[in-house]
Give the backbone structure.
Amino acid sequence: MTLLAVGLNHTTAPVSIRERVTFGPDIVVGALRSLREQPGVSEAVILSTCNRTELYCCVQEDQVEQVQHWMAQFHGLVVNDLAPYLYQHRDDEAVAHLLSVASGLDSMVLGEPQILGQVKQAFQTATDAGHTGKTLKRLFQHAFNTAKQVRTDTAIGDSPVSVAFAAVSLARQIFSDLSELTALLIGAGETIELAARHLHQHGVGRIIVANRTVSRARDLAEEFAGYAIGLTELPAHLAEADIVIASTASPLPVLGKGTVERALKQRRHRPVFMVDIAVPRDIEPEVAQLRDVYLYTVDDLQEVIQENLQSRQEAAEQAREIIDFQVREFRAWLGSLDAVDLIQDYRANAEAIRDEVLAKARRMLANGKDPQEVLEFLANTLTNKLLHTPSSQLRLAGSNGQQELLDAANTLFQLGHDSRS
């Protein structure tokens, strides 16, 4: 049995390729069933996100290449067209890859935590559909525990490395408690959506979304129990905001110094934290001159992000050491499975011999044989039958000069005999 990981991600394939091999929630269960029906595939999990599609399988060694062919054929592609973008990892490398993915070391944003939830969901889907067995269940639980250890024992997730996260982190430094605060988000694009998500996760009291297209603002605001306004309504609501994060595509500032001054008066000069992520800027630079305003630009955040990226890189080195150790731990567990199977077979063979000899002994007693004679027969016959095969194999090993086998037997039976003398 070979443990196999086959896939592509944001580093190996452009989005035009990635989008052609995704497994959406509506097809993933059927895809798992189809994959399991391939020759030699005994277990399977499919992980599919916007940045990666990966298949994790237990497969017979001579059927490994079949998994790549299935992946291409399932999506109506020719395997030769897909192959340049694929990577394939086996056994220890497959284990290390999954542990790295779950720990965020293989993500577009190093150390991002969302991927762990996606890996857990992929595993749960496969398990619920009956496509995981002893090996993949143990492997994925091992990955989850490793990811938790990486988060606990390193600083991989401590430092923000996205603009939106950095903005919210700065807000938390200025206002230790966000629960009584109002955040005004200007724009409704991806960065603002991320900022809204981070603010919501950190318990901000209220969210207002301002956008030129009010319907888009409303869709975003409703997701986080906020409310929406148009850009023209900004002056009327600015005084409510303790936190302002702006990121629009406007060629001109949407907030001027005068508007902010009037809002500060209404606020009785309670401080306002502002982040202008837009290029060109959404907030006039002169706003920074006002007392009680903490204004940061995208350049200010980039300095924070670069420092934090370095911190995460250092943490990633520690994380890889953890992963190397955990790969060895999983390999040891896999090796123990071979021992378990061998022990079970050995015991079954011994029990079969026992039952055969015991049946003969019972027949002897039933025929009136002396119990002492029957006991001696039972002991001698059982001993001879149990020792016959090992003894003949050891004699053969000695004749053939198989010293390693003789040494192993000496260790196995704890005889203390010097087989080299």
